[in-house]
Amino acid sequence: MPASVVSVEEVRNSLPTYKRDEFDQGLIIIATSTSFSGIDILNPHRMNAAEIAETANVQMHGLTGDQVIQRADQILRERRAREREQSIRTLKRLEEKRAKAASDQQQLARFTIDSARYYMGASPYGAPEPVIDLTVTNDTDQAISELLLRGVVASPDHSAPWVDETFYYVVPGGIKPGETQEWSLAPNRFGPWGNAQIPSDAELTVTLQGLKGLDEQPLWDSPELTEHELARLERLQKEYGGIAFSRLE
């Protein structure tokens, strides 16, 4: 048996019996604290008793058994403090992300679809042609060059929508803040919009999915939290929700 292992065993045997389990746990804590987040990252097999003793002995520097226990307790406190601080930072980041997404949704809501109508008209050549009539108002503080829209055509006696598609519309010249415009769009008559079975009383619902400014960059498009992030946020709020964040800034 290596001398270093004997040294650890001698220190252990010098302790009262009731402290030896605590000493053993302390050795493991000291040994694993020397690696990057634990030995398993670079060495997937569990450390055996000799490896733990060898690694811990390097860190002991002639400490007594009680000092080993105290050192392990200090390591645990420091580790928990780091984990706590990281958890609080994560909580703050998730709350800020959720608030930014909510703010962006409020900004998008200021661009309104005032009316939407779908019908089959006639092309210049006499063939049936689908038409989307839209009236929109830009109450944002930005000029808008492009819209991402979702159009759903449905009728009460049909279980599934006749049409459910997203589409872009590039606004010629853009639409300024405070401006209302009316458009007649001609979707592809060879796609779902041109389905001859769609009844004349089918209703069109158009919702805004996104906007671009005059520089063609997306506006107010911060993503909402994923289900995983929401669950994590809820857990962190229960544990740390009452803690002030100012000291972490």
Automatic annotation (TrEMBL):
InterPro entries, per database record: DUF6694
Coiled-coil residue windows: 77-104
UniProt keyword annotations, A-Z: Coiled coil
Superkingdom of the source species: Bacteria
Alphabetized Pfam families for the sequence: DUF6694
Protein's UniProt name: Uncharacterized protein
Organism: Vreelandella sedimenti
Lineage: Bacteria, Pseudomonadati, Pseudomonadota, Gammaproteobacteria, Oceanospirillales
